[in-house]
Design goal:
Blueprint: H1 2-21, H2 26-29, E1 41-43, E2 50-60, E3 66-77, E4 84-96, E5 104-112, H3 114-118, E6 127-129, E7 135-136, E8 142-153, E9 161-164
Antiparallel strand pairs: 1-2, 2-3, 3-6, 3-7, 4-5, 4-8, 8-9
Length: 180
């Protein structure tokens, strides 16, 4: 038992040392900044049993010094009458010159999830939409992931709806300092 505890402590020290030597700062080791639970929630047909929830995440990578982000669509549709003829999400990596400045789109991807949302397959997992370009981090900007969902529920008489989502928290950190 003592040998096992000693081995675990040694492994923890080695792991911590490797993390410190690689130049990772505490800010980069923090959790990926995402929108809060139910921050981008759409309730359909007046019941929380029929809803779509979208999480937006954006972060700076420590190893490559790039900006990455994605949207994650989760849903619960219990009413078999709710059928999407369209459900597309445009996910964008954006930058701005000041914390309250105007967004500039750097990269985007559009994903069609209508088939997934209409599927009754279980178990199921949230769908993700990732912009594909490698975006180099620039400390002169504030970065975020933003998205717009365009959807249409068959037979509801509302037609196509554009849903502007709340973006991920802003990412703005000083340049990396690499230890050599």
């Amino acid at each position: 038992m003592r040998r096992r505890i000693g081995s675990l402590i040694t492994a923890g020290v080695v792991t911590a040392s490797c993390a410190l030597l690689s130049g990772t700062t505490p800010v980069q080791a923090a959790a990926v900044p995402c929108t809060g639970k139910e921050e981008n929630l759409k309730v359909l047909a007046g019941s929380n049993a029929n809803r779509v929830d979208v999480k937006l995440c954006g972060w700076r990578t420590a190893d490559e010094d790039t900006v990455q982000g994605f949207s994650e669509v989760d849903w619960l549709i219990e009413d078999p009458e709710i059928v999407f003829s369209k459900f597309k999400i445009q996910t964008r990596i954006e930058k701005r010159a000041t914390a309250d400045g105007r967004d500039i789109v750097v990269d985007s991807a559009t994903c069609d999830f209508a088939k997934a949302l209409n599927s009754a397959a279980k178990p199921r997992y949230p769908e993700q939409c990732h912009p594909a370009a490698v975006v180099d981090y620039d400390a002169n900007y504030w970065w975020s992931t933003d998205a717009t969902v365009t959807y249409d529920v068959e037979g509801d008489g509302k037609g196509e709806i554009a849903w502007e989502l709340n973006g991920s928290p802003l990412v703005h950190t000083p340049p990396l300092v690499h230890i050599r």
